[in-house]
């Protein structure tokens, strides 16, 4: 009996020692992090809005961390290819994800089976920036405000067509959100990406589109398009003359893309803290802030907990929009 107790006590002591040793090793790893270049997976093409924002943040973030940040573009399947690659990476802080709504808070509600779970396979680091969209119409449409567009779409049900960059894209869900809040009736026309959708709007083949400011603001200023509102809660420094949709009658309307830094699940907390602190400092710097705002992007920089709460809210919102609109992926 006594020998058994001694063996049990010895076993517990051994297990405790192993746990403490592992904890010490993780602490030492975190204190030395980073000691080599960091790979940043961007699940989109080079030159796209997420990629541009990542490359604005990249230099100073690497400078603060003391190691180069290497951008690795992995487009495809609505961002799911790059996101899955990041989810399967070793959780040591040397492979990170530049995540956005497509693969993290929209696609999970469109596909019954995903090869990753955004909530379980990643640990949040920081919400880097918000990228609102402009509500645009072809100038041939007799609407110069959100209220006038809604009135027109109500009085002529399904006579107006709106474009999206693809089924389930953030600009598709934004328009369905607008329809749900206002009772407007518009018909969805899906295009394969932003260039053909924008060309269709410019050509008058569709009448309405949500799109990012950088790719459209020159058309607005040249009179080729008309901007009725912006999908953020605050006006854009890039175009302060354009009202928000919220102040235009759609109270609390907010939609758009966003950029967040995430790490594979089980990445040590010390490493996550180092990364989060560096992101907040980077986004808060006047130079980076000005560059992001020049792209029509709102700098944020958040704690891991705030990003986690934000992603849960986004996921819940997108789930409701998908269900209410009956959006399905073939």
The structural class is alpha/beta
Sequence of strands across the biggest β-sheet:
2-1-3-10-4-11
State the distance separating the first and last CA atoms: 66 Å
Provide the gyration radius in Å: 23 Å
Strand content: 15-25%
- Low-pLDDT segments: 19-25
Number of domains: 2
CATH fold description of the largest domain: D-Maltodextrin-Binding Protein, domain 2
Name the features:
330 residues; alpha/beta; D-Maltodextrin-Binding Protein, domain 2; 2 domains; six-stranded mixed sheet; five-stranded mixed sheet; 12 helices; 11 strands; 47% helix; globular
Could you characterize what this model shows?
- The chain has two domains: 164 residues, D-Maltodextrin-Binding Protein, domain 2, CATH 3.40.190.150; 97 residues, Periplasmic binding protein-like II (D-Maltodextrin-Binding Protein, domain 2, 3-Layer(aba) Sandwich).
- The longest helix has 31 residues.
- The chain is globular, with a radius of gyration of 23 Å.
- About 2% of the residues have low confidence.
- Helix 1 runs parallel beside helix 10, helix 2 crosses helix 10 and helix 7 crosses helix 12.
- 47% of the residues lie in helices and 18% in strands.
- The strands form two sheets. Strands 2-1-3-10-4-11 form a six-stranded mixed sheet, sandwiched between helices. A five-stranded mixed sheet has the order 7-6-8-5-9, with helices on both faces.
- It has twelve helices and eleven strands.
- The chain starts with a helix and ends in a 5-residue tail after the last helix.
């Amino acid at each position: 009996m006594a020998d058994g107790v001694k063996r049990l006590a010895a076993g517990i002591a051994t297990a405790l020692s192993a746990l403490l040793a592992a904890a010490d090793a993780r602490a030492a790893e975190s204190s030395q992090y980073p000691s080599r270049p960091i790979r940043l997976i961007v699940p989109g093409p080079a030159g796209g809005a997420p990629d541009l924002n990542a490359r604005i943040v990249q230099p100073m973030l690497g400078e603060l961390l003391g190691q180069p940040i290497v951008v690795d573009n992995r487009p495809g399947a609505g961002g799911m290819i790059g996101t899955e690659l990041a989810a399967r990476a070793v959780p040591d802080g040397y492979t990170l994800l530049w995540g956005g709504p497509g693969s993290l808070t929209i696609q999970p509600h469109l596909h019954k089976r995903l090869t990753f779970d955004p909530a379980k396979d990643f640990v949040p680091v920081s919400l880097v920036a918000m990228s609102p969209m402009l509500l645009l119409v072809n100038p041939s449409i007799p609407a110069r405000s959100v209220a006038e567009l809604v009135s027109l779409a109500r009085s002529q049900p399904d006579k107006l067509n709106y474009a999206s960059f693809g089924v389930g894209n953030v600009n598709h869900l934004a328009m369905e959100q607008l329809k749900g809040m206002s009772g407007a009736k518009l018909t969805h026309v899906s295009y394969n990406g932003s260039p053909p959708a924008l060309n269709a709007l410019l050509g008058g083949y569709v009448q309405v589109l949500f799109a990012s400011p950088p790719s459209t603001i020159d058309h607005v200023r040249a009179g080729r398009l008309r901007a009725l509102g912006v999908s953020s809660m605050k006006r854009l420094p890039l175009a302060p003359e354009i009202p928000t949709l919220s102040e235009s009658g759609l109270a609390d309307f907010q939609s758009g893309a966003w950029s967040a830094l995430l790490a594979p699940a089980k990445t040590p907390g010390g490493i996550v803290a180092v990364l989060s602190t560096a992101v907040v400092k980077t986004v808060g710097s006047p130079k980076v802030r000005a560059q992001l705002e020049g792209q029509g992007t709102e700098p944020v920089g958040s704690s891991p907990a705030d990003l986690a709460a934000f992603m849960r809210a986004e996921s819940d919102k997108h789930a409701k929009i998908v269900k209410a609109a009956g959006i399905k992926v073939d």
